[in-house]
Amino acid sequence: MSKGLAQIMKQAQMMQQKMGKLQEEAAERTAEVTTGGGAVTVVVNGKNQVLSLVIKKEAVDPEDVEMLQDLVMTAVNEALKKVHQAMSEEMSKITGGLSIPGLF
C-alpha cells in the first residue's frame, strides 16, 4: 500500500473515532428553550430526547388548549433545532466541513 493511501486510511480511522466519541457525547449535550414568555420550558439532548418539560399553571387554559399545544410544540421543535445545530457544528469541525449524510 502506498504511503499516501496509508495516510488517508489513518486519517479516516481517526475521523471515525472522533465521530463515534461525538455521538456518545450527544446524550450529554442539551438545549433549553422557553416559549410563551416563560409559560413552557423544554430541555432536550443530542439524542433527540426530551429531558424536561415544564408548563406553568398559568399557561393551562381549558378554553384554549390549542395555544398550549402550540407553545409545547414550538418549544420542543426549537430545542431540537438548537441541539441539532450544535451537533452539526461539532461534526463539521471533525469532517472539515464535508457533509456526510445521516450523521447529524
TrEMBL record:
Ranges in a coiled coil: 5-32
Cellular localization per UniProt: Cytoplasm, Nucleoid
Signal peptide span: none
Keywords, in A-Z order: Coiled coil, Cytoplasm, DNA-binding
DNA-binding in keyword set: yes
One Gene Ontology cellular component: bacterial nucleoid
Stated role: Binds to DNA and alters its conformation. May be involved in regulation of gene expression, nucleoid organization and DNA protection.
Quaternary data: Homodimer.
Name of the molecule in the record: Nucleoid-associated protein E4633_03295
Organism: Geomonas terrae
